[in-house]
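Question (not urgent): is this output format expected?
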Amino acid sequence: MTMKDDNNISCSKCVHKKTSIFKNCPSNDLDTFFSEKKQITFSRNKIIIKQGEVFNGIVCIKEGIAKVFQTKKNKEDFIFWFAKPGDLLGVDSFINKDVYSYSVMAVESTKICLISKNDIDTIVKKKPEISIEMIKLLCERIDYIEKRMVSIAQKGIKEQLAEVLLLLSHKSGNQTNSLTISYSIKDLANIIGTTKNYIYKLLSEFSQNKIVSIENRTLKINDVKKLSKISLGN
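Got this back:
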């Protein structure tokens, strides 16, 4: 189920503007350039972007969490990362003038802003410095994926799970805060490259050690410090 929200909050008032690629744009310009912007809410497990579809705009996650993945020829999904509020998706397709290179699915009820292709074209022409910000964003994504590949090659499954749980946390917080994650055992297994049974086993071990707790399909990290040590192999 998708639902269009006609009560769009202007980009100038968005809490994510200060960390986005549009942070240096005058607020009035954003409201003027993004005349076609739509705010849409996607319920859990609904597809926001479908791999292979023609690019029609950049998606900004406003609220919620979304899974970013590619479907391989054998129909298995390879998860790149989980997008959080403030993340922009589809930038690579805009630059390449190509179809969407990955799919995006709502992990929980997720509200997005869809910035149309026409609006993006307009702001890039008026504000060419945005192109530099887009390239920086893509470089950060490439760097993240490279680090993930190194982690997969060098760390054991237990260390990788601890690392992934920390990455999926809804907020950064400090070491005394408890952090919550809306999760799927299948997703955790896919992103790490192991079986669901092994993930269950490790989560049970973490739970017994009071590092995490699980209730109503929500996983809570109770001890960020201990989980961080595990992720480093300590």
